[in-house]
Amino acid sequence: MAGVERRTAFVTGASRGIGKSIAVALAGAGFDVAITARTVVAGEQREHSPSVARSDTAPLPGSLSETAALIEKAGTRALVVPADLLDRSSLGAAATTVLERWGHVDVLVHNARYIGAGHMDTFLGAPVSVIENHIQGNFLAPLVLNKYLVPSMVERKRGRIIALTSASGYSDPLHPAGSGGWGISYGSSKAAIHRVAGILAVELAPHGILSFNVDPGYIRTERIAQDMAAFGFEASGEPPEVVGAVIAWLATADEAVEYNGQNIFAQQFCAERDLLPGYTAPKPPPPSSKPDLSGARLQAILPEPN
Asked: What is the reported pTM?
């Protein structure tokens, strides 16, 4: 209809997995969607091993081109703006391109995270440079995009900012990194981004802008299937469409204001509100005690000396 302004969204890490599902769900909700990641076409090779102890450049499934085709199939526009979380100039170029082409962004979704060594490395095993990469990719990169895109939201007196968070940012692992737990690089960077939504909710609410954290829980993705079995994680979990449905609701529902600044558990939220027909959230696991780190148990989990 002439004169009706198109709604726009910007989704990071949209080449596969959760980000792809979010982008497609937003397209289904009527948004034109700008998508960013590093992989533009299928088959590109780059390092994605979670540990400094090994290298893995085997192509991962998915690409921005494939996601863009699904967005357009849903009847809205796709805008591919490749960027690297560690390259702030590329983030600025991506955000600037979206503003130049579309004029504004209504919904900004920070889904991408740094893919590389450190995720499954212990504190003693992770070089400081690797920890810095996670802080840049998982915490500072979203802030860089906010700096570019939030001012136009303030001018327009509306907007929604959604960050994908993780239990690793506010709870302790039951096992060391590499044996079913997560590394300090990942947990610390997720803890940092977890604090942003509540602060922005306070500061930006007077400008009509809402901010949320969404914890996806354990989700079945291409990278879980390809990379994570060697580090104690099963190729299982809930479908990524669960997270997409929750994000689409937060992006469109007037009632979302009630959750401003809060952390939303996607699987339970999706099931309670019947956002994905037929989906039933898994029951939470029984409480587990933290690992015994004394005596024989400590000796059992420590690696043999070289």
From this structure: 0.91
